[in-house]
Design brief:
single chain; 163 residues; alpha+beta; 434 Repressor (Amino-terminal Domain); 2 domains; five-stranded mixed β-sheet; 6 helices; 5 strands
Length: 163
């Protein structure tokens, strides 16, 4: 790989690092094994996280399985992951766009009813899931407690670790 900013002829060599996944908009996502290319000539950095769709799907699965209520940032991540605008998602939830925006912007935990409604809406839109919806709300399946989600890549497949 060569630098596209300064058009240096020198090939950039990758270093493997563990980096926050800032693209998600969440503060607690760490991706292991990110290839980082650094140009010594101009200082430009290039990051190769891998397959963003698979990483986002892994994050969404972890969020849907978490024990505590979703925060505003988590709701925004799930909404964007499914490709919904704020207005369209608010209509799906039968609430106002202003109400949804307030929850997402303040980043407070949603109340139990709104949390359940968001999860139901997102889960109903997820095609391949390995958990049952009713188990999640009836307490038959263990919820996961974590402060940070770590994503590791092995052979092109992503696995989750909760810390």
């Amino acid at each position: 790989m060569r630098c596209t900013m300064c058009e240096s002829k020198k090939n950039l060599k990758p270093k493997i690092e563990n980096l926050k996944y800032e693209v998600s908009g969440l503060d607690n996502i760490l991706v292991h094994g990110v290839k980082v290319y650094h140009c010594d000539n101009c200082g430009e950095r290039y990051l190769q996280y891998g397959n963003h769709e698979e990483i986002d799907a892994a994050i969404a699965e972890a969020l849907l399985k978490k024990q505590k209520a979703l925060t505003g940032k988590e709701i925004r991540f799930l909404r964007r992951w499914k490709g919904y605008s704020g207005q369209r998602f608010a209509r799906l939830l039968n609430t106002s766009a202003a109400h949804l925006y307030r929850i997402e912007a303040k980043n407070n935990s949603a109340n139990d009813k709104f949390d359940r409604l968001v999860r139901l809406a997102i889960i109903s839109l997820v095609k391949d899931r390995n958990y049952e919806l009713h188990d999640m709300f009836e307490g038959k399946k263990d919820f996961i407690k974590y402060k940070r989600i770590e994503i590791q890549s092995k052979g092109g497949q992503y696995s989750l670790r909760y810390a």
